[in-house]
Design brief:
2 strands; 1% strand; Ferritin-like_SF; 267 residues; DUF455; Rhamnosyltransferase; 10 helices; two-stranded parallel sheet; mainly alpha; Ferritin; 67% helix; binds fe (ii) ion; UCP012318
């Protein structure tokens, strides 16, 4: 006897609602695997939660109330860096899940596959960073973190094109720009394990940005407009402020991001 297969939307919703890091990591990887193996049907009966589940720690502060990071080379400064990165990856799990769950019905099964694969990558990134934090005598949750990233998602919940324009194509792309400098710092600290983690994350993030570009192009085609102009107008409308140089031109162009549009958004 075969059991009826559950809808992918329910499994995504459950992963979003998971609060503890281990639980969310397992749930995100499981939904990606179950979808890939055909154990879930393409169905979205229930709305995604407005706020995903979060653990009791870290304490979430507005970005302007975050304590200053210690000096780069000190143990405390290093812990603060890896903690901030772990938090970004933890929120990125929910960002990818929410993308698949909230917009999967209108964008189709390929979109769900791509963003669930991203969610599984983010879960792996989080695990690598939390493990690294533990080798430094800390752990995810030990320091406060800021809630700015989820806010960008909440502000674009009404429109898949706006969400793609801002989350993968601005926020994740920002990761491509800042990682090379972080990587040099980590290498200068003699942290070879940390450097390898950052290199792996950078490779994956180029693919994540590319997935965003791919589906913004789909939206532009549906709307009958130019994808670059669409990106620029959506970012101007939904993202406060200008993009900050220096830009990682080679990573950006590998991901398919327009360098001229990037520069237009920097001013
Ligand atoms: Fe990531
Ligand atoms: Fe990512």
């Amino acid at each position: 006897m075969t059991r009826e297969r559950p809808p992918v939307g329910d499994a995504i919703r459950a992963a979003l609602s998971a609060t503890e890091p281990t639980e969310k990591v397992m749930a995100a990887r499981k939904v990606a695997r179950d979808w890939r193996l055909g154990r879930l049907i393409f169905g979205f009966d229930r709305a995604m939660p407005n706020r995903p589940g979060r653990p009791a720690e870290p304490e979430l502060l507005p970005p302007n109330r975050m304590p200053k990071r210690g000096r780069g080379g000190s143990l405390q400064g290093r812990i603060a860096l890896w903690h901030a990165l772990a938090h970004i990856e933890f929120v990125a799990i929910d960002l990818a899940l929410d993308m698949a769950g909230r917009f999967g019905a209108e964008m189709g099964p390929g979109f769900v596959s791509d963003f669930l694969a991203v969610a599984a990558d983010e879960a792996m990134h989080f695990v690598l960073l939390d493990r690294h934090l533990r080798t430094l005598g800390s752990r995810y949750g030990a320091l406060p973190a800021h809630d700015g990233l989820w806010q960008a998602a909440a502000d674009t919940s009404h429109d898949v094109a706006a969400r793609l324009a801002v989350v993968p194509m601005v926020l994740e792309a920002r990761g491509l720009d800042v990682t090379p400098a972080t990587l040099s710092r980590v290498q200068a600290q003699g942290d070879a394990v940390g450097a390898r983690i950052l290199e792996r994350i950078l490779d994956d993030e180029i693919r994540h940005v590319a997935v965003g570009v791919k589906y913004l192009n789909v939206c532009a085609e549906r709307m009958g407009c130019d994808p670059e102009k669409l990106w620029i107008s959506l970012v101007r409308r939904h993202f406060p402020g200008a993009l900050k140089p220096p830009f990682n031109d080679s990573a950006r162009s590998t991901a398919g991001l327009s360098l001229s549009a990037t520069r237009a958004l920097a001013s």
